[in-house]
Amino acid sequence: MKITVVATGKIGLPLAVQYASEGHEVIGVDLNANLVDSINRGVEPFPGEAGLAEMLAEQVAAGRLRATTDYAEAIPNAEAIVIVVPLLVDEEHGKPDFAWMDAATRSFAELLRPGTLVSYETTLPVGTTRGRWKPMIEEISGLREGEDFHLVFSPERVFSGRIFADLRKYPKLVGALNQAGAERAIAFYESVLAFDERDDLSQANGVWDMGSAEAAELAKLAETTYRDVNIGLANQFARFADTADIDIYKVIEACNTQPFSHIHRPGIAVGGHCIPVYPKLYLSTDPEASIVRTAREYNESMPEYVVGRVEQMMGALTGVKVAVLGAAYRGGVKETAVSGVFPLVAALIARGAEVTVHDPLFADDELARFGFVAHELGQPADVVILQTDHAMYREIGPNEFPGVKLLADGRNITDPAVWKGVPRFAVGA
Fold this sequence. Notes:
By secondary structure, the chain is α/β, with parallel strands linked by helices.
């Protein structure tokens, strides 16, 4: 099968490699010329994805995978097109910004040929596949969905760093606009994916037909919004525990011994492309969802809460040297999407603190491009705030920060024994 993947970033490229590994001919189209060049040389363009480097090199060498910046080279012969273009959210109003996705859709629709399957995997507000993409593609291409081409929504359900394992582990959800489209999509995904056997599911692991595009759209929003709401509840418990001298982590551990309780961990921030973004996509079509809105607002308040606690313990922060550990939104991932580092640094600077940022995955010039002053281990600091749960920070100690007077562990991963003699607090502990 000839398959085109539109956008070959941290999700799209592993998908393209997976499809090629099943014997298909895959072209990735991306406007980033440097990314395209790296793919065509068989060189992993970004670190941290298990198995990607080896599989990419193998599939490129075998001639089953290549990339281009030219839609005209990638679209006309495709039997299936998979779109993984990011959907942004307007920070000021919390509304979806379809600019990138609209541009990509127009680009491939102009070249669409009869008989093609079009599958969107980018997480979408409910109703987008039917209400936005169908009429747009039909108008631009002159083709009719359900007769000349099939359009489906099939959300990616993977976690950066373990994408290939997740593709095997979790059912592939498919939502079509008609039965013929569903059958076509099921056949496609069964040909490009392999699934682990799981006896814990209500039906066999594999491709699951959700019955409609809207059901598949809601499934992805629901499973991710649940996590944000759960974390918001954990953060609320943690902030109460701080006032009552209770270790919330012991409480959560005890609660979760019951099969009816699955409380997540509290923390300084919820970042990434998914958890802080998708609740806003949900709210864009269900603005009365007060529980979702409250949890999102609560989670967004956590960096300010931690800075407030630091201020209570240190006094005025004017001129205080604060070293922030971690720019990435998650440990082990070189990515700053909606990272808590940005509101955290802003809150510190607003109080007059002198802020530096350390992250083992980012060079000093990369941190500078975010507007940060790089911190070198061994430099003095009055306060250390741990923002990212990188593995190296689990072992780090006060000797790396001469003069340190306070550690604020936003992820509760440091060893109190190592920091003995230095005041230390974690959210909820």
